[in-house]
Design goal:
Helices cover about 30% and strands about 25% of the residues. The chain is of the alpha/beta class. It has three domains: about 170 residues, FAD/NAD(P)-binding domain (3-Layer(bba) Sandwich); about 110 residues, FAD/NAD(P)-binding domain (3-Layer(bba) Sandwich), CATH 3.50.50.60; about 110 residues, FAD/NAD-linked reductase, C-terminal dimerisation domain (Enolase-like, domain 1), CATH 3.30.390. The longest helix is centred in the first third of the chain and has 25 residues. Strand 12 and strand 13 form a beta hairpin. The protein is globular. It contains 13 helices and 24 strands. Strands 1, 2, 3, 4, 5, 6 and 19 form a seven-stranded mixed beta sheet that branches. A five-stranded parallel beta sheet has the order 8-15-9-10-11. Bound molecules: flavin-adenine dinucleotide and nicotinamide-adenine-dinucleotide. It holds the Pfam family Pyr_redox_2. GO terms for molecular function: dihydrolipoyl dehydrogenase (NADH) activity; flavin adenine dinucleotide binding. Belongs to the class-I pyridine nucleotide-disulfide oxidoreductase family.
């Protein structure tokens, strides 16, 4: 393979890397991107997209089961539904494939060269790519490292056999009859809900005192209630100790020290992800670290001139849209523009049932920063659209500065509220005050009216509660 030179080399074609490459290409920067996996990274291939496809398929099946059992909207009934899981997985793979091709096409259109292989630094400007057709050296003026993250493995539950990570969980032949999940965070609760709806008997083992500890208790309560109605068993304050006995049951230690065995066909370990800081020759570079992450400044510059790092590799939140925003920014910096990462809001959405959205500061976070706040919350029980959707659990909550009413944070929990993340983020990014949100005409009947009413309530004049 002939050696190459370029202005920008991007290592890793996940949402961070491919966005950086496309934007750089659009700006006329001669760009090469390297990955040994199809473009799209964790998110597109084994993360966001495939998990949301399976979550939606399980939702549809569950609704049919509810209708068959006479639990749907009165008057809506159905015969017993069937679930052909391998076909669902094929459908999911088809979506991933379409998006892989889409990203490949976008890179091509931006004149980015896509090199298949694993990259390894020789020095700060040169990498060697170990590809299928041999080794190739690429020398670049600037490099963006976007190698992402991998699942955390527990020493007492190494991956293999019935112990799997989220990657394998997305391509199982069938929903396991008994599924034990270790870790009740994002992936555990999202996939646990989906498998419960698909018919698995699910147990979630969570080390802290509640599931989804990242979100405040009010937001998580409707999700925990729904899991209970789905028959999911939740063990909090519990630690997995390994597999035990002939049947290789999951051994769990409760908070009081007592032990319990959980029979499981599959043990899915979802205790977090760690940045991928090895395997690409970090030892050849002089990078500062920030704990397990590569340290970067507000322009995603590492300690080495011309070497940038973005995405899951550089810290929380480990979310695809943060990686993309950093990728876009770095490309513009490399192209000579003046940019810094100064986002006011990075939304977080949990695709549970009901969904959770959080943007900006929670009431607790504002309090911890010593900010006096006004709060307004509006329940979906008083929202006409929620009633017509046959789901009125949850609420929207607005957190604003007490003195000038600047909106600091917005949270919601409710069926389908993920789509409200756009309105919430825009309000924060534009520096909206309570009066702006309350004074906007929101379409009727929509769940968005609950956002307006929450702002009105914070101002002391809600209309519908
Ligand atoms: P990655 O997407 O991890 O991409 C890194 C790429 O680098 C990979 O393709 C890898 O092959 C490549 N690479 C690594 N080393 C090398 C090397 N030496 N040479 C060449 N290439 C290399 N986030 C959300 O925002 N919303 C969600 O709904 C969501 N759902 C998720 C569901 C699951 C099951 C999982 C696991 C994650 C989910 N995430 C979600 C998180 C999201 O996937 C990550 O935040 C995102 O993919 C990070 O992007 P990245 O570009 O930093 O890295
Ligand atoms: P997570 O950090 O969301 O949750 C891990 C959970 O495991 C935590 O609740 C933690 O207390 C628990 N835990 C840790 N060690 C444990 C142990 N030994 N026994 C029992 N419980 C233990 O991690 P995740 O669910 O693996 O997801 C990884 C990352 O992927 C997330 O942090 C997020 O950044 C991203 N993600 C995002 C989405 C989304 O945006 N909707 C969806 C999935 C994943």
């Amino acid at each position: 393979m002939a050696d190459m030179t370029c202005q920008l080399l991007v290592i890793g074609a996940g949402p961070g890397g491919y966005v950086a490459a496309i934007r750089a290409g659009q700006l006329g920067v001669d760009t090469v991107i390297v990955d040994d996996r199809k473009p799209g990274g964790t998110c597109l291939n084994i993360g966001c997209i495939p998990s949301k496809a399976l979550i939606h398929a399980a939702d549809e099946y569950f609704l049919l089961r509810e209708a068959a059992g006479g639990r749907a909207i009165p008057g809506v009934t159905a015969g017993a539904p069937a679930l052909d899981w391998p076909r669902v997985v094929d459908w999911k793979d088809g979506i991933v494939n379409r998006l892989n091709n889409g990203v490949t096409g976008l890179l091509k259109r931006a004149r980015v060269k896509l090199v298949a292989g694993r990259a390894r630094f020789l020095d700060g400007k040169t990498v060697e790519v170990d590809g299928e057709t041999g080794n190739q050296r690429i020398t670049a003026e600037s490099v963006v490292i976007a190698t992402g993250s991998v699942p955390v493995e527990l020493p007492m539950l190494p991956f293999g056999g019935k112990v799997i990570s989220s990657e394998e969980a997305l391509s199982l032949d069938a929903p396991p009859a008994r599924l034990a999940l270790v870790g009740g965070g994002y992936i555990g609760v999202e996939l646990g809900t989906a498998f419960a709806k698909a018919g698995s008997a699910v147990t979630i083992v969570e080390a802290t005192d509640r599931i989804l500890p990242l979100y405040d208790a009010d937001l998580v309560r409707p999700v925990a209630a729904r899991l209970e109605t789905l028959g999911v068993e939740i063990l909090t304050g519990a630690k997995a100790k390994g597999l035990a006995g002939e049947d290789r049951d999951l051994l769990v230690e409760a908070v009081d020290g007592s032990e319990r065995r959980i029979g499981a066909d599959i043990v899915l370990v979802t205790v977090g992800r760690r940045p991928l800081t090895e395997g690409w020759g970090r030892e050849e570079l002089v990078l500062d670290m920030d704990g397990a992450f590569v340290r970067v400044d507000e322009q995603c510059r590492t300690a080495m001139r011309g070497v940038y790092a973005i995405g899951d590799l550089v810290g929380e939140p480990m979310l695809a849209h943060k990686a993309m925003a950093q990728g876009e920014m770095v490309a513009e910096i490399v192209a000579g523009e003046r940019r810094a990462f100064d986002k006011r809001a990075i939304p977080a959405v949990c695709f549970t049932d009901p969904e959770i959205v959080s943007v900006g500061l929670s009431p607790e976070a504002a309090k911890a920063q010593g900010i006096a706040v006004k709060l307004g919350s509006f329940p979906f029980q008083a929202n006409g659209r929620a009633m017509t959707l046959h789901r009125d659990d949850g609420f929207v909550r607005v957190v604003a500065r007490a003195d000038d009413h600047l909106v600091l944070g917005i949270q919601a929990v409710g069926a389908g509220v993920a789509e409200l993340a756009a309105a919430f983020s825009l309000a924060l990014e534009m520096g909206a005050c309570l009066e702006d949100v309350a004074g906007t005409v929101h379409a009727h009947p929509t769940q968005g009216e609950a956002f307006q009413e929450a702002a009105m309530r914070a101002l002391g004049h809600a209309l519908h509660v």
